[in-house]
Design brief:
GO terms for molecular function: adenylate cyclase activity. With 265 residues, the chain is of the alpha+beta class. It folds into two domains: 91 residues, Single Sheet (q64v53_bacfr protein fold); 161 residues, Nucleotide cyclase, GGDEF domain (Alpha-Beta Plaits), CATH 3.30.70.
Length: 265
């Protein structure tokens, strides 16, 4: 099964970062895909890659073996042109310890999702070398603002960053600071924020709140920061932050409709 690791800011000789992996396998006329966030530990020949959560999977039936082969070749070519490096070793699954495996803790946080707008077109225009450099500066700028606002990075996925904050005001302030910082790199971002509970199991963070935040970010346009009604409710006492109604939206894969608000100023 060919496997690929998203390089982003870090190269293969750097340990202790999060990224994204993608795998493909063809069985006759069927193509099996697997992808998700990973954690990289070690460097060089001792490097190990672990799924941070159970990966997503998809089965594509192509009717003929030739179509499946063509699909696989095309998919691999796209990954190689999108800053993925071939990954020869296996992607492991962390096993929970005997004491921590059954432990399930609940936590409440403001979840921030940052995503670059038009990243594919930008990468094609700049070329691999310049785009890799820009992405390095992008992640450095995001992490600087996260540290300043006391945000906690959870995972990076391609050109996106997911982080948590103890308060919605801190998350919104950080979003504005990141927007200002990355514009100097010629980049525009969209941001989504949601406040909700998530679970910590075996050291991993899981929960619907993360998915809701991601869907909210997808509704934003370039330069916009959108927040959920949960964030608005928690901001009741924060009069210096102005919000405007952005309407009711159906978030893909999320039950019911959600009212979103745009951060102004």
């Amino acid at each position: 099964m060919p496997k690929f690791l998203r390089v982003g800011l870090h190269q293969s000789n750097v340990s202790g970062y999060t990224s994204k992996a993608w795998c493909v396998r063809r069985v006759g006329s069927v193509v099996l895909l697997k992808w998700g966030a990973v954690e990289v530990q070690g460097a060089g020949k001792s490097r190990k890659v672990y799924w941070t959560h159970l990966p997503q999977e998809k089965t594509i039936r192509c009717r003929t073996a030739q179509r499946a082969q063509d699909y696989t070749r095309s998919a691999i070519a796209r990954r190689r042109s999108h800053d993925y490096e071939p990954l020869s070793g296996a992607i492991g699954v962390r096993r929970n310890s005997a004491n921590g495996g059954a432990e399930l803790k609940q936590a409440l946080a403001t979840i921030l999702i940052v995503d670059i707008v038009g990243s594919t077109a930008k990468a094609a225009k700049l070329g691999d070398a310049r785009w890799t450099k820009v992405m390095g500066l992008y992640y450095a700028a995001v992490r600087k603002e996260l540290k300043t606002c006391r945000g906690k990075e959870v995972v990076t996925t391609g050109d996106g960053v997911l982080a948590t904050f103890k308060s919605p005001a801190a998350g919104i302030s950080c979003a504005a600071a990141i927007q200002k910082a990355v514009r100097t790199l010629g980049l525009e971002i969209r941001v989504g924020l949601h406040a909700g509970e998530y679970s910590i199991s075996g050291g991993e963070m899981v929960g619907l709140a993360f998915h809701i935040g991601t869907r909210i970010a997808a509704k934003a346009r370039a330069g916009e920061v959108l927040v959920s009604s949960a964030v608005k409710d928690l901001l009741a006492a924060q009069s210096q932050i102005r919000l405007s109604d952005h309407g009711s939206h159906q978030l893909k894969g999320v039950p019911a409709r959600w009212r979103l608000y745009r951060v102004e100023g």
